[in-house]
Each structure stands twice: as structure tokens, then as C-alpha cells.
């Protein structure tokens, strides 16, 4: 009787060890052998590889367009400036963006005409810094101005091929209203593009001319000008880089 019980217990133990051994081999031993070139050509390892599907966990992070626009507006706001050019009988309002941390700013030539006193607003409120116009190209409608400031926030340029038809874009402008500088954000997409212009789906006020247009990575994709109907057309980043040398 005792011998039968012993035999049954031994068989059960052997069976249990076999199960756990098989599980251990499948979970640890075979993956280890399959991952090393010394063993991968063994027939039983190849057969295991053919029968086995490895499932790896993946995580997908979805960022909504609204969240992306908010992030770009928040991060790029520090590089956008408001510009006020004062003449004898006329004041011109526009925007621009900081191209270098030591105060070089890109804007439209039409925003900073010759003979005008140029004031740059770096932050919200009424405080301004006087700027010098270093270069003005009326044909391209581009200008470089400079303020005596250091450690300013900048943004990189988008590559020439980064904007495709339908790509989302964000305009961030700073404009004086009732003597106060405010930030204005608009969003849209690329409708058409060529070497000279990026035409967008956005419409806005012409006093926002010179406002940078950003891609969703926060890179400057162009500089805003406005058609007579108010449509935003951007001078692409490739022209801005060639003009400025930055």
C-alpha cells in the first residue's frame, strides 16, 4: 500500500516538475537561446521561433490639435515682439520675432519705414525699447532691426520641406490695442505653397503683419503678410534664412 502511495506521489511530483520546467523553458530558456546567435541555428530553436509570436507592449500618445496649438502659443510667445513705428503724422503697428538672443529681430520692411522711430515691445504692457534698423529690403518686404538686449528667447527655423499642403500652422502676433500690448493667436493650415509664398486658410487684421507663423514643433515657418481680403500669406522660412543669414 505504502509503495503504491509513494509511486503515485513520485509520479505527481514528476508531472508537476515537468509542467513547471516546461513553463520555465518557454518563458526564459527558449527566448534566451533564440536571442543569441550561437543557438539560433539549432533545429529545435528554429522550430520554436517559427511557432512563437512575440507580443510587445506599445503605448500611443495622442495629442489633440487644440493642445498642440496651445503649447506652441505658450512656448513661442516669448520670441514674438510687438513693433510700433512712429512718423511725423503716422504710426504703423506690426509684429516680428527674435532671431538671435542678442537682440536681432526679423520683421517686414513695411512695418519699419525709413525715417520712422522704431519701438519694440518685448513683453505685455506699455514698456518699449528703441530699435535700430540694420537692413531693409523693399522688394522682399523684409527688415532686420536690433534692440540692445541680451538673453532673449529665440525659435529655430522650420526646414523648407517641413510644411506640406494641409499642414497645421499657428500665427502668434503681438499688437498694441488701446496702448496695451496683447498677444493674438490664430490657427489654420497650408492651402498652397511655392518658393516665394505659403498661402494659408487664415484671415486676420493687416496690423498683425510681421507676425511669425509656426509649425506644431514651435519652429518659425514664415512671416505674415496679408492680402487685400485679409488672407494670411507667409514669406517662407527659406527666404527668411537667406535674407538674414541666421
How do the strands line up in the largest sheet? 1-2-3-6-5-4
How many strand segments?
12
Q: What's the architecture of the largest domain in CATH terms?
A: Beta Barrel
Beta-strand fraction estimate: 25-35%
Count of all domains: 2
Shape: elongated
Order of helices and strands: HHHEEEEEEEEEEEEH
- Spans of 5+ residues with little confidence (pLDDT < 50)? none
Text of the CATH class of the largest domain: Mainly Beta
Based on CA atoms alone, the radius of gyration comes out at: 32 Å
Give a short synopsis of this structure.
This protein is α+β, with helices and mostly antiparallel strands and 246 residues long.
Description:
With 246 residues, the chain is an alpha+beta fold. It folds into two domains: 50 residues; 180 residues, Thrombin, subunit H (Beta Barrel). It is built from four helices and twelve strands; from the N terminus they run αααββββββββββββα. It has a six-stranded antiparallel barrel with strand order 1-2-3-6-5-4. The chain has a six-stranded antiparallel barrel with strand order 7-8-9-12-11-10. The chain is elongated and about 110 Å long. The mean pLDDT is 82.
Notable characteristics:
246 residues; 4 helices; single chain; Thrombin, subunit H; six-stranded antiparallel beta barrel
How are the elements arranged and paired?
Layout lengths: L1 H33 L8 H9 L13 H12 L3 E7 L4 E8 L5 E4 L9 E5 L7 E9 L4 E5 L21 E10 L2 E14 L4 E6 L8 E3 L5 E7 L4 E6 H8 L2
Antiparallel strand pairs: 1-2, 1-4, 2-3, 3-6, 4-5, 5-6, 7-8, 7-10, 8-9, 9-12, 10-11, 11-12
Amino acid at each position: 500500500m505504502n509503495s503504491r502511495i509513494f509511486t503515485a506521489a513520485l509520479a505527481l511530483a514528476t508531472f508537476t516538475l515537468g509542467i513547471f520546467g516546461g513553463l520555465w523553458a518557454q518563458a526564459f530558456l527558449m527566448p534566451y537561446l533564440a536571442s543569441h546567435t550561437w543557438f539560433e541555428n539549432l533545429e529545435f530553436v528554429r522550430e520554436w521561433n517559427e511557432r512563437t509570436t512575440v507580443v510587445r507592449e506599445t503605448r500611443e500618445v495622442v495629442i489633440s490639435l487644440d493642445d498642440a496649438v496651445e503649447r506652441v502659443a505658450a512656448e513661442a510667445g516669448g520670441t514674438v515682439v510687438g513693433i510700433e513705428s512712429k512718423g511725423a503724422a503716422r504710426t504703423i503697428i506690426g509684429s516680428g520675432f527674435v532671431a538671435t538672443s542678442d537682440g536681432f529681430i526679423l520683421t517686414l520692411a513695411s512695418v519699419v519705414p525709413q525715417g520712422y522711430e522704431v519701438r519694440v515691445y518685448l513683453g505685455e504692457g506699455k514698456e518699449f525699447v528703441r530699435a535700430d534698423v540694420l537692413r531693409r529690403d523693399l522688394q522682399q518686404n523684409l527688415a532686420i532691426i536690433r534692440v540692445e538686449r541680451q538673453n532673449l528667447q529665440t525659435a529655430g527655423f522650420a526646414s523648407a520641406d517641413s510644411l506640406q499642403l494641409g499642414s497645421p500652422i499657428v500665427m502668434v502676433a503681438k499688437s498694441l490695442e488701446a496702448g496695451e500690448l496683447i498677444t493674438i493667436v490664430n490657427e489654420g493650415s497650408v492651402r498652397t505653397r511655392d518658393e516665394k509664398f505659403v498661402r494659408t486658410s487664415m484671415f486676420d487684421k493687416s496690423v498683425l503683419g510681421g507676425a511669425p507663423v509656426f509649425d506644431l514643433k514651435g519652429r518659425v515657418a514664415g512671416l505674415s503678410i496679408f492680402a487685400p481680403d485679409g488672407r494670411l500669406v507667409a514669406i517662407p522660412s527659406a527666404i527668411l534664412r537667406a535674407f538674414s543669414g541666421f
